[in-house]
Write a structure and sequence with these properties.
Largest interface: A-B, 26 and 29 residues
Order of helices and strands of chain A: EEEEEEEEEEE
Number of helices of chain B: 0
Shape of chain B: globular
Number of strands of chain A: 11
Oligomer: heterodimer
Distance between the termini of chain A: 40 Å
Strand content of chain A: over 45%
Number of strands of chain B: 11
Number of helices of chain A: 0
Structural class of chain B: mainly beta
Helix content of chain A: under 10%
Shape of chain A: globular
Helix content of chain B: under 10%
Largest sheet of chain A: 6 strands, mixed
Largest sheet of chain B: 7 strands, mixed
Strand content of chain B: over 45%
Order of helices and strands of chain B: EEEEEEEEEEE
Chain lengths: 108, 116
């Protein structure tokens, strides 16, 4: 099946810094989502982004489907951004296949 | 509109006991999914319902896990008997069921299960 790789696996930022998280997939996908798992374990939908660019506040995401990657940008990071960021895709069978996540810590 | 809800939020049980997790999807969503994240590992798909029918249960780890969705509304996931390796966070998600799977799956807050 399609492999999903995320990088970096771990990231520590100082509050206010910007960062880019990357998700590579091994074949074409037509459904890609980004999630944030907060320190309480809850999964929060960030973006549904099969292609193109979307922005929501300090977060934005870009997927280049033809080159098989997606990027999540976090600007002016805050301590509440800490947690694990996952990308996941769904094939025609609808089940989401997940990357291992990027664990982000933002220090005050 | 209420989101996906899950109950309980936490459960601590002893090995060999039974636990039942519940998921209420977003109203009108025919598709319901169960996933779990075992500590430190990736989130993995367990199964997918379309209304009351199991569409795909290829991710269910073994026959100690039983999922139901009677009436096509809420779903339960029962683990009997629970083992230590079943500990983790169990997530439920729902979606409308748009053609080709080109849609967002909305997740509940998860149930943290700890088996001692």
């Amino acid at each position: 099946g399609i492999q999903v790789e995320q990088s970096p696996p771990d990231l520590i930022l100082q509050e206010g810094a910007n960062s880019t998280l990357r998700c590579n997939f091994s074949d074409s996908v037509n459904n890609l989502q980004w999630f944030h798992q907060n320190p309480w374990g809850q999964l929060i939908n960030l973006f549904y982004i099969p292609s193109g660019t979307k922005q929501n506040g300090r977060l934005s995401a870009t997927t280049v489907a033809t080159e098989r990657y997606s990027l999540l940008y976090i600007s002016s990071s805050q301590t509440t951004d800490s947690g694990v960021y996952f990308c996941a895709y769904a094939g025609n069978n609808r089940k989401l296949i997940w990357g291992l996540g990027t664990s982000l810590g933002v220090n005050p | 509109e209420a989101g996906v809800t899950q109950f309980p939020s936490h459960s601590v049980i002893e090995k060999g006991q039974t636990v039942t997790l519940r998921c209420d999807p977003i109203s009108g969503h025919d598709n319901l999914y169960w996933y779990r994240r075992v500590m430190g590992k990736e989130i993995k798909f367990l199964l997918h319902f379309v209304k009351e029918s199991k569409q795909d249960e290829s991710g269910m780890p073994n026959n100690r896990f039983l999922a139901e969705r009677t009436g096509g509304t809420y779903s339960t996931l029962k683990v009997q008997p629970a083992e230590l390796e079943d500990s983790g966070v169990y997530f439920c998600a729902s979606s409308q069921g748009l053609a080709g799977g080109l849609e967002t799956q909305y997740f509940g807050p998860g149930t943290r299960l700890l088996v001692l």
